[in-house]
Amino acid sequence: MEEVGARLVARFGPEAEGWLAEVPNLAARLAAQWGFVLGELFASGASSVVFRCQWPDGTPAVLKLSPDRALLTKQVEMLRVFAPSGRVPAVLSADAEAGAMVLEEILPGTEAEDMPQTSLPQQWGELLAALHGVAPPAHWPLDLRGRCDEAFVRIGRRLSEPAIGARIGQAAWQRAQRRCETLLDSRAGLVLLHGDLHLGNVLDGGPSHGLIAIDPKACMGDPCFDAVDYVVAGAGQEGVEARCQRVATACGLDGDRLYAWSRVIAPMAAIAHLTCDGPEPVIDELLALSG
To answer: Superkingdom of the source (predicted)?
Structure first.
């Protein structure tokens, strides 16, 4: 819980410590209210605490709690929007006021990064077909332009850090922004995107379910965007360009557009690797892609 607390404080400030102290009482109250059996602490993120639990009918589930009630409420809404795809966890219950939701646990739940890589492009294509086949709600307020604008502002602040600024300058950042604007302005066929489909947000749901996507940030935009993080993760492995060709073919995407998106995302990925002292060959390939 100390590690979870450190992440929450970094995200929400010192007041998160008070919220975290009340988590055991909140979890116990919800267990009594909804009738589930509370289990152990599970893989919690930067904005939530997650526990394994068992739903009254025996379904393996996870309880997700967050001090950001608005964020969690939006996550519930997005999961329910994508529910017809069969490719997101089912929401078993939610309480917006408590900042809580219970989701079915995805089993075996192996992250895509740790799955056999030979069959992954084809499985990714099937996942995208299911997600992008969902009809967007009328007047859905979020689009890819807003998502990208927010990311460039938030991540762009990191350029002022000496270790980041020494490797990624304003010129490279501005190139990425111009490339992004060009792609957004061309408005290729729009679909409802997952919006944050990196390898850690895609889990193995087993033979009967296929790949399952978690934590959507649903927005309207270019279908290539939901494959770009997977493509950029090829840096230092088979290479971004080679992976781009494989993924574009398997997913039925425009390979040139997908590669152009990879050049937009590359400096952001490089910053992530620089932050955690990632492998130099990976960073070098991402910086070259940003050129």
So the answer is: Bacteria
In this structure, the strands spanning 60-65 and 191-193 are unpaired
Cα-flanking dihedrals φ and ψ of residue 122, to 5°? -65, -40
10-residue mean pLDDT profile of the chain (291 residues): values are 88 93 97 98 86 97 96 96 98 98 97 96 98 95 97 96 96 98 90 97 96 96 98 97 98 98 98 96 98 92
Q: If 0-12 CB within 10 Å is exposed, 13-18 middle and 19+ buried, where does residue 183 land?
A: buried
Distance CA 8, CA 48 (A): 7
Biggest alpha carbon–alpha carbon distance for the chain: 57
3-state helix, strand, coil in the chain (%, to 5): 55, 15, 35
Q: How far apart are CA 233 and CA 266, in angstroms?
A: 9
Q: Distance (Å, rounded) from C-alpha 79 to C-alpha 213? A: 9
d(CA 157, CA 98): 32
Q: Write b or e for each residue in 69-103: b if 16 or more Cβ atoms lie within 10 A of its Cβ, otherwise e.
A: eeebbbbbebbebbeebebbbebbbbbeeebbbbb
CB atoms within 10 A of CB 270: 26
Q: How far apart are CA 88 and CA 103, in angstroms?
A: 10
Token duo for residue 52? 């394994």
